[in-house]
Amino acid sequence: MKIAEIAFSAYPITDVARARKFYEGVLGLKATQDQDMGEKGHWIEYDIASGTLSLGKYEGWKPTGDGCTVGLEVENFDEAVAAIQTSGTPIKMGPFETPVCHMLMVSDPDGNTVIIHKRKPGHH
């Protein structure tokens, strides 16, 4: 098997409206796909550059802050931190600086960890 690329990253959610308020309202993402399948579930996608962040509400798929996380690269780290702080979003860690970047770890409404990230010049 040869893996060509990461198709998408996904988080389980429990409340679609609440999740959209965070991802679209606080983070400013725009939904590129929204599939409401009624009792079977709900799937939302946000295309970000060459990647896709997905949210899904399905029985048996539960949120956890201990699972995989997504790092969202921002243009202006200080503005992003201020927006997060103003929104009342729970901060798990940071903001902090590493030799290659600045990061802030927050919790979405279901407790999934989201990293707000800004690379320093010269780092990919």
TrEMBL record:
Transmembrane segments: none annotated. InterPro entries: Anthracycline_SecMetBiosynth, Glyas_Bleomycin-R_OHBP_Dase, Glyas_Fos-R_dOase_dom, VOC_core. The keyword Lipid metabolism does not apply. Keywords: Dioxygenase, Oxidoreductase. It holds the Pfam family Glyoxalase. PROSITE patterns: VOC. Residues 5-119 form the VOC domain. GO terms for molecular function: dioxygenase activity. This is Glyoxalase/bleomycin resistance protein/dioxygenase. It comes from Chthoniobacter flavus Ellin428. The lineage of its organism: Bacteria, Pseudomonadati, Verrucomicrobiota, Spartobacteria, Chthoniobacterales.
